[in-house]
Amino acid sequence: MTEENQNEGLTEDEKALLSEILSEDSSNLSEFGESRRNFLKQLTMAGGGILAFELFGGQELLASPATQPFTESIENAVTLSFKVNGAKKSLSLDSRMTLLDTLREKLQLTGSKKGCDHGQCGACTVMVDGKRVLSCLTLAASCTDKSVTTIEGLAKDGELHPMQTAFLKHDGFQCGYCTPGQICSAVALLSEAKNGEASYVTANVQTSKGAVSLSEEEIRERMSGNICRCGAYPNIVDAIREVHTGKGVAQNWQFVDDNQASNTSDLPKNDNK
After folding, report:
1. Backbone angles phi, psi at 206, to 5 degrees
2. Where in the chain are all domains bearing CATH 3.10.20.30?
3. C-alpha angle 149/154/159, rounded to 5°?
């Protein structure tokens, strides 16, 4: 097969391109074999180079990595300025980022827990301007110029918040995963009752005025959005009742001594479980 016959069917531009390539590598030219593989290889490399240029952009491809400082690219970036536990914070973040992820990933406040991430368990509860919110369903951008309080912000000057102390006294936690959300919710609950905000079980909503007295039923209803898979609900209710009334509530648990530990029949009975 002659070169003339081999080029039949090619356009003039294709013939010129083939001639140019073959002239650079004529020593390897043959009808089949290595020269053909080299030809395909060169075309592949040329096509790959064009594709890479389009994907990465000419500027980035030609830039020198050693002289260009790395900068984080944030999609849909917004600047957020708010207070967290009394300290002013200013952040640049994605406008779609939740308050929970902002607290945990940007501010390293990991006390608020991610449970269901669907607003159903209450483990992520924090307070925004004194109102409890589910931080997994709250966009951080919506908290601009507001004040956020997390479990880390309740203790002051090394002293636990009264609700934290009550939870310790009444053993209102077992695994502890839901506890930060439970305590934040309980603290906000007291303010709601003090302000006279009614719940689903509040009697005489139209005639009642002033602060709401929290019965056990009221506490259970108002805390129903916070789930405890360990089942420490009776102890949590006792802790909230104690802080709400300011009167001591007998704890229903106690430490065992060595004799009781060796004989389980002597252990105190817990009627609430």
Report:
1. -75, -25
2. 74-153
3. 160
Q: pTM for this structure?
A: 0.68
List where CATH 1.10.150.120 sits in the chain. Answer: 154-251
pLDDT digit string (tens) for 91-131? 999 999 999 999 999 999 999 999 999 999 999 999 999 99
CATH code for residues 74-153: 3.10.20.30
- Contact between 227 and 121 (Cβ < 8 Å): yes
Which tens digit of pLDDT belongs to each residue from 188-202? 999 999 998 988 888
Structure tokens at 42: 């060169």
Please name the fold of domain 154-251: DNA polymerase; domain 1 (1.10.150)
Tokens of 96: 């779609």
The whole-angstrom separation of Cα 113 and Cα 106 is 14
Measured in whole angstroms, the distance separating CA 51 from the mean position of its chain's CA atoms is: 37
